Amino acid sequence: MEEISFKIIVADSSHKAYATQITEEMESSAKARGTGIAKRSPAYIETKMEEGKAVIALTTDGRWAGFCYIEAWGHGKYVANSGLIVSPEFRKYGLARKIKQEIFKLSRKKYPESKIFGLTTGAAVMKINSELGYIPVGYSDLTDDESFWKGCQSCVNYEILMSKNRQNCICTAMLYDPQAKKNHTEELALRVDFKKDLKLFDRWVRLKKYVMLKLTKSKDSVKSIFL
């Protein structure tokens, strides 16, 4: 594999030219995975850049390689690191982990008292979140800001979310709480074997999709998968 150097920096107005490419790749990647995302327009991404609430990865010769941005909800009580995307040609360089680390640092700097959460269908992202100190939580532990949930309307799984009264969906919810005691967080964190083996994260994602998409809505049917 060719060695390529990347720089991951806080995005600003000078990076607005990449906005369309970023949003197109977000949509195309979601379609390839067969999952949904809350769609974002190039204008929205440009605003995040102007506000200094995004990080962008570029090659030394100026090619766009990856991106992620910050959204604040509930008057800043909650923060989400959203829209993580890596250009297909650079997906074998561990870039997603580095971008997540940088957007996490930026979130902590801008919102030191806020809880940071994420919704994801990706096993790799779940593993990275776990390494940063996130723990799996129920949807009731997330923000109740209507603006956040409204953003899910463009997701292909929105009907599932609403049928579950916004308490569950295909995505797994994960949360970092800066106020939680370190030892308490470690007790709640994913098992050590999950942290070491990405396949176990993948099994969890596939099991959840199976339960949410294939089984009937009866409680007995749902229980049977775990018995």
Radius of gyration, whole Å: 18 Å
Number of strands: 7
Fraction of residues in H or I helices:
40-55%
Note the total helix count.
Answer: 10
Q: What is the subunit organization of this protein? A: single chain
Mean pLDDT: 82
Give the uncertain stretches in residue-range form: 183-189, 215-227
* Termini Cα gap: 45 Å
In terms of structural class, how would the helical and strand content be classed?
alpha+beta
Strand content: 15-25%
Largest sheet: 7 strands, mixed
- How are helices and strands ordered from N to C? EHHEEEHEHEHHEHHHH
Which word captures the global form? globular
Read across the widest sheet, the strand sequence of neighbours is: 1-2-3-4-5-7-6
